[in-house]
Design brief:
The complex is a heterotrimer. Helix content of chain A is 3%, strand content 45%. Chain A has 1 helix and 11 strands. In chain A, strand 2 and strand 3 form a beta hairpin. By secondary structure, chain B is an alpha/beta fold. Chain B has one domain: Alpha-Beta Barrel (TIM Barrel), CATH 3.20.20. The longest helix of chain B is centred in the middle third of the chain and has 21 residues. Classes of the chains: A mainly beta, B alpha/beta, C alpha/beta.
């Protein structure tokens, strides 16, 4: 497993995402309220790009007419068929054990730390002043 | 043991059969205004499906002879219990109080002239869904009589069965361990499907399968089984073989648009396997044994199917009502275990 | 060699690999107008003005949306919004780039839903729109992109106007199908629509029936459901009812050369309705003496079903059984691009198909039905 620098933290605003290529894989990195998550950019159902998924609340209910929201923005509704996935774990709502998106550990490092290495910089240089998103693959 | 979950005693008319069971007000209305003739358009008495030719009485409506029913269904096919579902259309009149009065009369008539005459007979309570509170009253009135084992509604009514205004009915049903029996038949409030009004009765009968599916969707997606976890629903005379593809499609849509109905917290097909039962007459089977085996495998549960003859409807010829080709273990469950589990009041002493 | 697709893992096929695979005939693509004004060049001034003022008049409560909100904006895949800023399905270049090229579509059959031509209550408006839509398809889609094939849309509740439009368009030799809608005033088997079928048969074109429409009838025999989950499912029910109507009214008997394509209803429901029709026809034969043969025979000879939305049983072998019950020859691949429940030709079939079967479902069945050679 290697840690890859994929973006500056400022590249991905809160509520947004960025698609990066790491070791031949298309990875989508989300920023949810300052926390970063990385998933394979591909729904296990029919291959839809998750970068275009809707980021929504975790929605539960005990009673018809009740809508209990939590973890705002941490669930992905796939861009095509609307399957819901937990951004933190990649697990689907309806079948967490067997239907999931591959997810990858994410770390934030500042440039000063990275200058000491080791890391893999994919496509752009790293400077000391900024913070970076690292994905472990 | 064999339990027949769907038979249809027939009645001649409101002014004849039901008159003794109406209160004084309805007696006068019925006689002075000649209010009668509630045979459902879904089952005109002379239509071939409505009565097998060798069961058709020389006089009177199909299924109206107790002796004939006893000889054919109870002694002939052999039934330890048989559940009477009266299809005379009190549910379909518009006046809710008339509907309630007529339903009451039907229930009292079935108890007095059928259930009292043979300890093997049971019945579903006919209720006026036009006015859910009156339906609840009727359920409460009869709940103490354990010979009533279910609540009967038609597959095509005025509003879909899952809707909120019906929930008090399900609360009462759940409390009294009465499953909801949804039987083919229509109140003809609207076309049987979105395509409009077909020409032929054959099309209407075929459409009943889709009507049952729409009711199931409503019950599941409106959250009725979550709200009333003890409730079971029995689809009667629906055709059965549509079930697996229906399960797949319901699951598929829910997986994608669950956000609309977040109270449906597990796959709809799993809810169905737990809460929904189907009588097997008719069984619109694939034409070969391999197909039947595959269909049974696709249904994925041996608890969902219930034996029924659908007497006197003409669904089969000969003396054996059981559709051919079903595995023996399933047949056994269909005839005894499943009905006993679905209708908990069946074996209680009358 | 069986082509097995795994259920939960990302398939290894990349877009480039599509080129070496089978060329696909996609029987359901939805081109759209970026705005109503884009139809104006094809509409007489009187109707341009009418559309700006009175607009659509459909049997539905809202002027600009359905009362059953869809799963996603404009019913579309969230990634189908072109970078040009145009609406999904309205940008030909983007359609090529996102769908036609990567999937390697050899031919795409157009199904236009915009402007609700089948459901306009003002039948004169409907007649004006049908002409405009049929011209627009050619000018804006099929001429610049020969892979795309147009369908003749007809204002079916005005049969005279429909027949005239069929004759006008069929004479060009450019259209591959005649479209009617399953949710109209009456079931499609009813007598009032027979002149349309006569014209279709005379033109030698199949009749395409795509789900949808605002016929004004409730989606179910017990009225209006609460949820899109239910209403979406009712499309399959309307298709089952239309299959019943066409067969039981004897349309295959009365129009022996006519072929029928059911579009966007899926196909899981087909075997059970066919078995039910066969069984119950035996009991009702004296009501419908014009149905001379078991219904299943007509279905097997004259009806085809596009595959989207594909059925998804937990056990993929069950899907295989359904395909065999219907017959490999009767299925036509469709994507429903750019709608949300789109099926990707590379990944939608999660059940083994032989190479020969793939060729049929993804190409040669449609090739024969639509005479695409």
């Amino acid at each position: 497993m290697a840690r890859h620098v994929v973006a500056r933290t400022t590249d991905i605003p809160a509520g947004g995402n960025k698609v990066v290529s790491v070791e031949g894989r298309e990875i989508v990195v989300f920023n949810v309220n300052g926390e970063f998550f990385a998933l394979l950019n591909r729904c296990p159902h029919e291959g839809a790009p998750l970068a275009k998924a809707a980021c929504v609340a975790h929605l539960e209910s005990d009673e018809p007419g009740e809508y209990r929201r939590s973890r705002i923005g941490e669930m992905l509704r796939c861009a095509w068929h609307g399957w819901e996935f937990d951004m933190r774990t990649g697990q689907s709502y309806f079948d967490p054990q067997h239907t999931r998106i591959r997810s990858y550990p994410v770390e934030i490092e500042d440039g000063e730390t990275l200058a000491k290495g080791p890391y893999v910089a994919e496509t752009f240089p790293v400077t000391i002043q900024e913070s970076y998103v690292l994905v472990e693959i | 043991m064999r339990i027949d979950c769907d038979i249809h005693p027939g009645l001649e008319g409101t002014r004849t059969t039901l008159l003794p069971y109406l209160d004084d007000h309805w007696k006068e209305q019925v006689t002075s205004r000649a209010i009668d003739g509630l045979d459902l358009t879904s089952y005109p008495p002379n239509m071939p499906l409505s009565c097998r030719p060798d069961w058709r009485p020389k006089k009177g409506k199909p299924g109206s002879s107790f002796e004939a029913l006893k000889a054919q269904v109870l002694d002939g096919f052999g039934a330890d219990y048989a559940i009477c579902n009266v299809l005379y259309g009190a549910q379909a009149v518009f006046d809710p109080y008339m509907a309630a009065g007529f339903c009451r009369a039907i229930n009292d008539w079935i108890a007095a002239e059928w259930l009292a005459r043979d300890s093997r007979l049971r019945a579903s309570i006919v209720v006026p869904m036009q006015a859910p509170d009156l339906a609840v009253e009727e359920i409460e009135r009869l709940a103490g009589d354990k010979r009533f084992v279910a609540i009967l509604v038609l597959a095509q009514g005025e509003t879909l069965l899952g809707r909120r205004h019906f929930w008090p009915v399900y609360q009462a049903a759940e409390r009294h361990k009465l499953p909801l029996a949804v039987h083919s038949g229509s109140q003809y409030r609207m076309a049987p499907s979105s395509i409009g009004w077909p020409s032929y009765r054959l099309e209407y009968y075929i459409a009943e399968a889709q009507a049952h599916q729409a009711q199931l969707l409503s019950l599941i997606l409106e959250g009725v089984f979550g709200k009333f976890p003890g409730l079971k629903v029995v689809l009667m005379e629906s055709g059965v073989s549509w079930l697996p593809a229906f399960m797949w499609r319901t699951n598929k849509t829910w997986k994608g648009v669950r956000v609309e109905v977040p109270w449906v917290d597990r796959k709809p097909a799993d809810i169905m396997r737990e809460h929904v039962r189907l009588t097997i007459q008719p069984f619109d089977a694939p034409p070969d044994q391999a197909g039947i085996d595959q269909l049974i495998e696709q249904i994925g549960s041996d608890r969902m199917l219930l034996f029924a003859s659908d007497y006197p409807h003409w669904q089969f010829d000969g003396d054996e009502p059981m559709p051919p080709g079903l595995p023996a273990s399933l047949v056994e469950r269909m005839c005894a275990d499943n009905p006993l589990e679905t209708f908990p009041r069946l074996a209680a002493n009358a | 060699m069986a082509d097995v697709l795994e259920r939960t893992h990302a398939p290894s096929a990349s877009p480039k690999a599509a080129k070496s695979r089978l060329r696909v005939i996609d029987c359901d693509i939805h081109p759209s107008l970026n705005s109503k004004a884009e139809i104006f060049p094809f509409l007489p001034k009187r109707w341009q003005e009418h559309m700006k003022t009175y607009g659509d008049h459909l049997r539905t409560p809202f002027t600009s949306t359905t009362p059953y909100p869809r799963s996603s904006p404009l019913i579309c895949r969230r990634d189908a919004w072109p970078p040009s800023g145009r609406l999904p399905g309205s940008d030909l270049d983007f359609m090529r780039q996102q769908h036609l090229d990567p999937i390697d579509v050899e031919f795409g059959i157009l199904q236009v839903l915009d402007l609700f031509i089948f459901s306009q209550q003002n039948l004169e408006l409907g007649a004006a729109i049908q002409r405009a839509i049929n011209d627009w398809q050619i000018e804006c889609w099929c001429k610049p992109e020969p892979r795309l094939k147009p369908s003749i849309l007809v204002v079916q509740d005005d049969t005279e106007a429909s027949v005239a439009e069929i004759e006008r368009c069929a004479a060009t030799g450019k259209y591959v199908q005649i479209n009617v809608c399953p949710r109209a005033n009456e079931p499609l088997g009813r007598r009032r629509y027979w002149p349309i079928y006569a014209a279709a048969e005379a033109a030698g074109l199949p009749l395409g029936i795509h789900v949808g429409g605002y016929g004004g009838h409730a989606p179910t025999g017990s009225g209006w459901p609460s949820y899109y989950n239910e209403e979406h499912h009712s499309n399959a029910h309307s298709m089952a009812a239309q299959l019943t109507s066409l067969v039981i009214e004897g349309i295959p008997e009365r129009f022996p050369k006519l072929k029928f394509v059911f579009i966007e209803g899926g196909f899981g429901w087909v075997p059970a309705i066919t078995w039910r029709m066969d069984k119950q026809w035996q009991r009702f034969r004296d009501e419908v003496p014009h149905v001379k043969r078991p219904p299943s025979e007509y279905v097997r000879e004259r009806f085809w079903f596009t595959t989207q939305p594909i059925e998804e049983p937990d056990n993929a072998r069950h899907l295989r059984a359904v395909i065999e019950w219907i017959g490999i020859d009767r299925l036509l691949f469709s994507s429903d691009y750019p709608h949300w429940d789109y099926d990707d030709a590379r990944f939608a079939f999660k059940t083994p198909l032989t190479d020969a079967e793939r060729v049929k479902i993804f190409n040669t069945n449609a090739r024969a039905v639509y005479k695409l050679d």
